[in-house]
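WARN no homologs supplied; continuing
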Amino acid sequence: MPATDPRVDAYIDNAQDFAKPILNHLRKLVHEACPDVQETMKWSFPHFDYKGMMCSMASFKEHCAFNFWKQVLLEQSAFPAEKTAMGSFGRITSLKDLPSDKTLKKLIVDAARLNDQGVKVNKTVSKEKKELVVPDILMSALATNALAAETFNKFPYSKKKEYVDWITEAKTDATRDKRLGTTIEWLAEGKARNWKYEKC
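OK structure emitted
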């Protein structure tokens, strides 16, 4: 039997009716492809950890999202070229929006292998102002909070970069996770990274 987290059960139970079969299906595939995966909740949505963060899923009012933390290192042809929402597969409104089970399982197996090998994603931020690289971990967290995402998207380059740098420069996963949680909280309140030092 897979190791499940009752908080994930509750999350799925509280999701919109259209989302339940999608979330249950994704959950089932993750456990089948990676039997040793551990379920948990981070930033109020389900995550699947295997020797570190591997993938996550979330549901919204009208769509679901599924995200691989190291998507940039996976087979790119498996992902849509253009997406209408955040997440590896964009807006998921039904099971038809997902790749085949075979493709999804291969992606999960490959993602687990990357964690087995300790491969890290390059977190370098481009020096070109118009090409600020926002890490997937922040993109996924923003996808769970509309207010935070709106604030971030309206910020000028410099204010976005302050948050990106703060998160990517964390020395440990625990520090990064704490900073990410604070980032979403502050953004939802319309605050910049250095709001404490800004003049009213």
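The first strand starts at residue 38 and ends at 42.
OK
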